[in-house]
Amino acid sequence: MRKFIAIALALLPALPAAAQRPPVTVPTPGTTLTTLQHAFDRAAPQPLQLWPPRTVLGYQDGTHGHGGLHVTCTDVPARGRCPRSDSGEGPTGRRAVQLEFHEQRSGQRREIGVTGWLERIEWERTCSEDYWEKSEYPLWTSTTRECHIAPSGTAATLQLEAMDLAALVAGRWQAELHLDVRSGLGGAVLGRQVFVLDVTVTDPGRAAIHLPGHGAAGARMDLQLELRRQPPPASVGGQGVLDMCLYDGLGSLSSQLVLIARDGGPDVPDRPPPLFSVWHQGGGRALHERIDYRLQVLHGGRRLDLHPGVHTLLEGIDTAELRPVVLPGMDQPVHCVPTPLTFLTPRFPAADKREGRYEGDLTLEMRLPTRRP
């Protein structure tokens, strides 16, 4: 006879690990300096933590009053704008310290919020499972929620959210945040926290050859040709200037940029450089149906000739004068490098050309450096 033995298995849920107290912590006296560098593409901003979640400011048994620790701003608004003394607020949640950022290249200033909050810590698990009270308090309040006994510690979180950092346009932004850590017993200053922030924002997706007078990347340009009858024979020539500004998407911190001009007309093997051409609208391709012009860009106080299809190097972008412009789709200015474009048509005898209207296509291309600042 075969025998079968039934074995019953009881599956029991795992018990949670025993909650542990945070380490005993004494508030840091004097000035604590923290330097943080941060870089991101504006198309995908990344948050920056100043105090990681639940950074313990102070935690000892209840006789030390660390359950009422709080953080206030100083008397210099540019280094953090928030209450400068205990506000006495209850657990109203996360709030922002307004901090002024300064862009080193353009001088632009922008104020954005640094989000922070406090959490209170129990010495014994009187009203919690893990020593942590569930409420979130503004940074600047000593208020506590007593449950039989007062809390014995305070932790803080302080961070720049990605959505707030996205308010910074391309460039290198710097700021200093000064905060005082205060006692819960009378509000005396126990120590100062200084955060030195260096944030580099790139935005290569918005790099553009900007034409301020046209609001777009395309424009119709008049060569400004002028007929002179004196001295004879009658001659035609002129000069037209197109307002142009180069935005590298890197806060104009590039050491150099490259411009390439391309003539959209037919090939002209006998045309000497650095000439471009417009053609009679009747469609002819003879010499008397073509008008040649030179193209020059003004950069760094010098006029540079652009040659068809040739890479023209513009150096010193990171030291050139800047101009604020608002690009399409943006609600705040960026700073580009003014580089006016001159269309120069050398004088020729009027009788040498067919009378009528001449047209041509010109394409400008800007290339960014492979190495970003």
Share of residues in strands: 35-45%
Oligomer: single chain
Please provide the count of β strands: 22
Low-confidence stretches: 1-17
CATH architecture of the largest domain: Sandwich
Shape: rod-shaped
The CATH homologous superfamily of the largest domain corresponds to CFA/I fimbrial subunit E, adhesin domain
The pLDDT mean sits at: 91
* Gyration radius over CA: 34 Å
Question: What distance separates the N and C termini?
Answer: 84 Å
Count, helices: 1
Label this structure with key terms.
7-stranded antiparallel sheet; 43% strand; Immunoglobulin-like; mainly beta; 8-stranded mixed sheet; 373 residues; disordered N terminus; 22 strands
Walkthrough of the structure:
This protein is an all-beta fold and 373 residues long. The chain folds into two domains: 31-202, Immunoglobulin-like (Sandwich); 205-367, CFA/I fimbrial subunit E, pilin domain (Immunoglobulin-like). Helices cover 1% and strands 43% of the residues. It contains one helix and 22 strands. The strands form four sheets. Strands 1, 2, 3, 4, 5, 6, 7 and 8 form an eight-stranded mixed beta sheet that branches. Strands 10, 11, 14, 15, 16, 20 and 21 form a seven-stranded antiparallel beta sheet that branches. A hairpin with a 6-residue loop joins strand 7 (171-182) and strand 8. The longest helix has 4 residues, at 162-165. Residues 1-17 have low confidence and may be disordered.
